[in-house]
Amino acid sequence: MIADTSVDRYYYIFDSREHRALVLDRETGEEQIPDTDPRPALIDHVRTHRSADVLRTFARWCAQEVEASALASHTAAGRLWAAAQRDAPTAWRRVRHDTTDAVMLAVALGLPQHQPAAAQLLTLQACTHPDAQRAALDAAHMSERWAEFSAESEPATAAQAMRERHVDWLLDRLSTR
After folding, report:
1. CA-to-CA distance for 29 and 18, rounded, in angstroms?
2. One digit per residue, pLDDT tens: the chain, 177 residues?
3. How far is it, in rounded angstroms, from Cα 43 to Cα 103?
4. Where does 50-131 have alpha helices with state H?
5. Cα Rg, the chain, nearest whole Å
6. Helices and strands (H and E) in the chain: how many
7. Buried b (16+ CB within 10 A) or exposed e, 78-112
8. Which residue blocks in 128-154 are alpha helix, DSSP H?
């Protein structure tokens, strides 16, 4: 069985209707995160007990974890990050549309080649999804891929460490009011 903290567990398809990468489990063919991943349930719990704003903040935090602040503003990734930092759904929609080609290439070529820049771009793009819960889920998944691809050694350990930081961040937000 392939660990669910590895990119090999998934395959990715670009959904042109939603302008996002669909993450499909190789074993089931379904769009779902394996049962061993606590984040989907935790994100749903945070949404229920806190607010969509907390989930949007989490997605942005995931982007900061993938070094978004170091991006040039004229790149697709830089434009996505600039848009994600504002609460402007109209701007999100526009930049998602304008960066579609770059996102499609990241999904089709970058992720299969384990390119950190592809996972970074998709993390940033996730932040601009109009649904905060979807933004949080996708940003978490793609930032985990970024950690895996960026690791000099032991990529599974790096991915697991990122997942643990996600869980810690979300639990910290639940414990503070």
Report:
1. 19
2. 445 666 777 888 888 888 888 888 888 888 766 567 889 999 999 999 998 999 999 999 999 999 998 899 999 999 999 999 998 999 999 999 999 999 999 999 999 999 999 999 999 999 999 999 999 999 999 999 999 999 999 999 999 999 999 999 999 998 876
3. 24
4. 52-65, 76-84, 89-98, 100-105, 116-127
5. 15
6. 8, 2
7. bbbbebbeeeeeeebeebbeebeebbeebbeebbe
8. 132-150
